[in-house]
Amino acid sequence: MSEQMNAQVDAALFAGKRVLVTGGSRGIGRAICLAFARHGAAVAFCYRRDRAAAEEVQRMAATAGAHIDAYQADVTDEAAVAALVQQVQGEQGNIDVLVNNAGAFPATQVIDMTPDEWDRVVRVNLYAVFYCCQAVLPGMIATGGGAIVNVASIAGQRGSARHAHYAAAKGGVLAFTRSLAREVIEHNIRVNAVSPGRIATELLVNEQTAHEVDRWMADTPRVGWERRKRWRRRCSFWRRRSAVISWAKRSRSMAGC
Question: Which of 13, 17, 29, 115 is most buried, judged by most C-beta within 10 A?
Fold first, then answer.
């Protein structure tokens, strides 16, 4: 009964809301897109290359009686992000919710890492967040508010061997989120981050070895592999106007700024 009531509340809450998700063709991003669509939001997502995967997300949504729009865009390219947001706004109206989910997770030790690899990983995991936030903010300010959810990682808090570039970028996402939240709270825009643990998505599975799985399981003995469902629920939670006291409001009152 409680799940049915929650579904009804969510459907009413997201009806008419326009949501943009980056990296929505697989893994966490796909789950987020489908969850928002099921609860009544007008969902658009971008993907970099895999059109077949993007179309599969659209088919999954259609099977559930929902519609999702897909756009090809490279979120590491500032001009491409600006064009994406302009296109989505032109076709759907201003964006109410942005979920910055796109990411890359290659495994390389620092001693073997090239500057190009470092730059590539930091650009997709950190620069893209900046580009997308900057692109949607004018519209959110003009319409009186919005919500931004940045998908960070526990690696940004505790580090990750063989993923120093990824961990550094995700640490930057956490700091960026706190800073932006302070800047835009006066415009009724909430900015939050979620930090998933190790989730068995395509992004992670493609990189894993048996040794890595054993090490990761040992690192997280209480919870093991986490599920996508938990994090799509958290993204919805941070979006909820009635359920959230903004981090920025709390931190500003505590810091006296």
Answer: 29
